[in-house]
Amino acid sequence: MVTKCTIKSVFLLLVFILFDLTEAINPTPQTTAFRNALKGANLRCKVTQHNVQLIDVVCDLLSHELDKLFRMIQRNNIHELKVKKNRYGRKRINLYPLPPFYCEIIKLESFQIVEISDYAFVNVEGLTELYLEHLRLTQLPLFGYLPDLEVLSLSGNPLTHLTNHFDLQHLEPMLSSPRIFTGVELLERIDLYNTDVKITAYDMVDLPRLIKIAPPIAAPRGFVLDYGFRSKADQAFINDLRERAKRQY
């Protein structure tokens, strides 16, 4: 038998659900203005309200439109920015430093990006996940200070090495210089599907939190998923490298 209390509880639950859906659908005035600005610039983007503070942006762009998008996007607060290359865009481009804005997740996919400038993402506040997938990168930039970055995907790039200090001969002269991952100490996961990268212990000198490498074949010998190096000797070796890097940099 259905009681009045049960009916009241169900009614209140439906009210809360409806309120949440309304909040998720209704854009703020700032979101509406940004959406209209993108439309006025003829950029094929969908802007939705993620929550009261943040928006999600999904775009399908030609290569030369990417720079225009980043000029317009500054000072916005974004949860996820996903930009895919339009199938007609074949122009090869460089990616230069992005303007200041807040964004937790950036996904760039299928662009003919052949080079990314050093420190290209340091003006992006709150960046926790960065996906640079199916681009044309043969080497990585200096990422610089990205204190929140936890996930990096480089899948589908023609990369052969993760860093330019993949052995002791290359690392020694760079111990006193900025390296590709100097300042990215919270990185936990790297995806390297469809690349020719085989990570070495020397690559990991600036990545003390890295415990997830995919696919597993890209990981160094003795590296265990969700743990790190199995051998105490291997762990001591990488710790020694890190101490030397700290002393000399």
Summary tags:
two-stranded parallel sheet, 5 helices, 25% helix, single chain, signal, 249 residues, Leucine-rich repeat, LRR (right-handed beta-alpha superhelix), LRR_dom_sf, 13 strands, nine-stranded mixed sheet, alpha/beta
Fraction of residues in β-strands: 15-25%
Helix content: 25-40%
The CATH topology is given as Leucine-rich repeat, LRR (right-handed beta-alpha superhelix)
What is the count of β-strands?
13
Mass-distribution shape: elongated
String of helices and strands: HHEEHEEEEEEEHEEEEH
Mean pLDDT: 90
Number of helices: 5
Structural class: alpha/beta
Overall tally of structural domains: 1
State the low-pLDDT regions, or none.
15-23
Largest sheet properties: 9 strands, mixed
Q: What is the CATH homologous superfamily assignment?
A: Ribonuclease Inhibitor
Topology:
Elements: H1 4-25, H2 29-40, E1 45-49, E2 55-61, H3 66-73, E3 77-85, E4 93-95, E5 101-109, E6 113-116, E7 124-125, E8 129-133, E9 151-153, H4 168-171, E10 189-191, E11 212-214, E12 223-224, E13 228-229, H5 232-248
Parallel strand pairs: 2-3, 3-5, 4-6, 5-7, 5-8, 8-9, 9-10, 10-11
Antiparallel strand pairs: 1-2, 12-13
Outline the structure in words.
The protein contains 5 helices and 13 strands. With about 250 residues, it is α/β, with parallel strands linked by helices. It has a single domain, classed as Leucine-rich repeat, LRR (right-handed beta-alpha superhelix), CATH 3.80.10.10. The strands form 3 sheets. Strands 1, 2, 3, 5, 7, 8, 9, 10 and 11 form a 9-stranded mixed β-sheet that branches. A two-stranded parallel ribbon has the order 4-6. A two-stranded antiparallel sheet has the order 12-13. It is elongated.
